[in-house]
């Protein structure tokens, strides 16, 4: 299924002010893979994601999404295959109601009204917020906004799902529901995140960026055991891999009365 493939070849990007964004990035993500993209602030994660949806154009190198090289000619076809959930849901929600926001994509695909309504309600039910269909998106909680933002993307039935910091600003319950939801998706997934525990749970593969360069690409658990790699990349081992800080301490003696 080549339409699920994401490939970057010798990707370079320099911002207009001369700041290096990406330097010689190479990878291939195949159908059905769940890949975490991790690195410290400024490592190039968001810059890379914006290239994958055609919002930024490489200074050098090429990107291939499915059967298409990513260029102006193929941009519309690529955007039919790729759905991106932005870091801030308010960047994605702009219509008067939740229903209208989720319907925006299917309407722009030219679907008839009955199909639009079906896709909207299916997407809202999938993320567990169908009861919010008539609400204003700007009066929702952070977790509800995140769920609706995901619904706006899956309503267009993309082959590839890209997410930028999906667990940021979520309370523990909302974060757990998000992880449970993402586990049900069979899409090819690329998740940029600082939440390494979520990456460990969802993604069998991780790409580590450091100062715009690809520092590592491999099996998630193995990379997260590499203390030197994590330290050099400004990352800390996931909490679930650190162990209990109290278990290794000497027991507190009990003083008999």
Strand-helix topology:
Elements: E1 6-14, E2 20-29, E3 34-38, H1 45-52, E4 60-65, E5 68-69, H2 75-81, E6 82-85, H3 98-108, H4 113-126, H5 142-154, E7 160-164, H6 172-184, E8 188-192, H7 196-202, E9 205-210, E10 213-219, H8 220-224, H9 227-232
What is the CATH homology-level superfamily?
P-loop containing nucleotide triphosphate hydrolases
Structural class: alpha/beta
Please give the number of β-strands: 10
> Strands of the biggest beta sheet: in what spatial order?
6-7-8-3-9-10
Which segments are poorly predicted (pLDDT under 50) over 5 or more consecutive residues?
A: none
CATH architect. name? 3-Layer(aba) Sandwich
CATH class: Alpha Beta
Order of helices and strands: EEEHEEHEHHHEHEHEEHH
What would you say this structure looks like, in words?
33% of the residues lie in helices and 23% in strands. The chain is of the alpha/beta class and 257 residues long. The protein has one domain: Rossmann fold, CATH 3.40.50.300. The N and C termini lie far apart (72 Å).
Looking at this protein, list some descriptive labels.
Rossmann fold; globular; about 260 residues; 10 strands; six-stranded mixed beta sheet
């Amino acid at each position: 299924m080549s339409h699920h493939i994401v490939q970057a070849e010798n990707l370079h990007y320099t911002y207009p002010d001369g700041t290096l964004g990406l330097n010689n990035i190479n990878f291939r993500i195949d159908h059905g893979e769940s890949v975490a993209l991790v690195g410290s602030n400024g490592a190039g994660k968001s810059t890379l994601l914006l290239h994958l949806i055609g919002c930024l154009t490489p200074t050098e190198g090429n990107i291939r999404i499915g059967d298409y090289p990513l260029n102006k000619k193929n941009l519309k076809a690529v955007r039919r295959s790729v759905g991106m959930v932005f870091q801030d849901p308010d960047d994605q929600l702009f219509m008067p109601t939740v229903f209208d926001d989720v319907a925006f994509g299917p309407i722009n695909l030219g679907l008839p009204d009955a199909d639009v309504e079906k896709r909207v309600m299916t997407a809202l039910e999938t993320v567990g917020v169908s009861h919010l269909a008539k609400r204003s998106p700007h009066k929702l909680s952070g977790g509800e906004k995140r769920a609706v933002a995901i619904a706006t993307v899956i309503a267009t039935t993309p082959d590839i799902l890209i997410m930028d910091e999906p667990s940021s600003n979520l309370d523990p319950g909302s974060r757990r529901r998000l992880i449970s939801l993402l586990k049900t998706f069979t899409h090819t997934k690329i998740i940029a995140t600082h939440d390494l525990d979520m990456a460990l749970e969802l993604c069998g593969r991780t790409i580590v960026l450091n100062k715009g360069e690809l520092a590592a690409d491999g099996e998630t658990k193995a990379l997260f055991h590499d203390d030197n790699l994590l330290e050099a990349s400004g990352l800390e081992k996931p909490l679930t891999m650190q162990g209990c800080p109290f278990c290794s301490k000497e027991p507190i003696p009990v003083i008999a009365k």
